[in-house]
Amino acid sequence: MRNLVVLIPEGFYVNYFVYSTGDLQPPADESYQLQRKGRIRSRDSSASSDDIRSLMDDYRPKTVAIRVLYGGERFRKPALYDRSILPALEELVPDSPLHIPPAIRLIKTLERAVPVPDMLLLFETAFFVDLPIQERTYALDIESAEISDGALDGIRRFGYHGLYHEAAYRRISRQYKEAARVISICLEPVPEVVGIYDGRPVYVSGGSTPMEGIPGNTTCGEIDPGIVLLIEEKKKLGPETINEMLTRNSGLTAVAGQQVTIEDIFEDEEKYKAARDLLEYRVLLSCGAAIALMGGYDAMVFSGKYGHAAEKLSKWLTARLAGSTRHKARQGTRTAIVGEESKPVLYVRDPLDRIIAADYCRLAEGANV
């Protein structure tokens, strides 16, 4: 019996999950059980370090799996920690100053544990490193003299729920082997739509940061960049205040006029109609873009924490998309509608920690992690 600890930094906390992985016999995603979960406040680094070391002392895990939101183009797959990893992460801090430092602090804390566990880093952006160049490129002059120090070299489009999307694609491809063109919809507080063609993402609604794309619980989603400049000029607000406005006080919460989640707006459809209509509309647009790029779609898969909302959204969405997979075929004087067959829809209800544990078991079988 071996223990696996999954660590997921989230804001001022680190969520932890202790799994017992047994002997890792196939099938890997059924060979572990959740033993304990909780959260450690990470704002006070000294206190959180003591709590994490205490967790290591209690369970003596062979491996700690750490979810890292951003890995840039450097990290294209899960990475087993060695001494080369920390300098590489430190180089990425300017590209992701909010998300890389917590991962670095966790690693340094775990290095002081006795015994030091193996560390497996799983990056949300890894799935999107090889997006088609026209999909990942912004029409910006980052080589201009004023910003020629390389500080903006990492600006490109990524997605930020790669672990969910990759797991969802694996699941649907096992059940529907003929489904080459998949629309993957992750309903998390920052929702994301991805078009996956033969296992490779070709479209993502997200951007260089999790702020772009579809409006989330409190994130604004895609907006005209001129709005930010206007807010700065008219309201005389600084970057931190504007960032707080766009990431903590916008999105569906701003439209609803009170704090809401994606789950809430599908529970009370009349009270939150404006917010629900906006979310449905933006998801529909993203699905349409994915369909246009892939030349149609064969299946749809939902993941993320808002499973109940996914069921309601899927019914509305598939009805709207039905026309996109139909076309009229002229046969003499008659017109026939073809391609009306329903598309499979799958719901992956595993939480992120379980997906990470399954990834560890899958990797351990093949790579002796």
Overall body shape: globular
CATH domain fold name of the largest domain: Nucleotidyltransferase, domain 5
Radius of gyration: 22 Å
Number of helices: 12
Helix content: 25-40%
Order of strands, main sheet, comes to 3-2-1-4-6-5
Order of helices and strands: EEEHEEHHEHHEEEHHHHHEHEEEH
Q: What is the structural class?
A: alpha/beta
Give a topology summary:
Blueprint: E1 3-10, E2 13-20, E3 33-41, H1 45-59, E4 63-68, E5 79-80, H2 85-92, H3 100-111, E6 118-123, H4 133-136, H5 162-175, E7 181-186, E8 192-197, E9 200-204, H6 225-235, H7 239-248, H8 251-256, H9 262-267, H10 273-294, E10 299-303, H11 307-321, E11 327-331, E12 334-338, E13 345-347, H12 352-367
Helix pairs in contact: 1-3, 2-3, 10-11
Description:
- With 369 residues, the chain is α/β, with parallel strands linked by helices.
- The protein folds into two domains: 3-123 and 352-367, ATPase, nucleotide binding domain (Nucleotidyltransferase, domain 5, 2-Layer Sandwich); 176-325, Nucleotidyltransferase, domain 5 (2-Layer Sandwich), CATH 3.30.420.
- Helices cover 38% and strands 20% of the residues.
- It contains twelve helices and 13 strands.
- The strands form three sheets. Strands 3-2-1-4-6-5 form a six-stranded mixed sheet, sandwiched between helices. Strands 9-8-7-10-13 form a five-stranded mixed sheet, sandwiched between helices. It has a two-stranded antiparallel sheet with strand order 11-12.
- A hairpin with a 2-residue loop joins strand 11 (327-331) and strand 12.
- Helix 2 runs antiparallel to helix 3 (100-111) and helix 10 packs across helix 11 (307-321).
- The longest helix is centred in the C-terminal third of the chain and has 22 residues, at 273-294.
- The chain starts with a strand and ends with a helix.
- 38% of the residues are buried.
- Mean pLDDT is 88; it is low at 23-29 and 327-340.
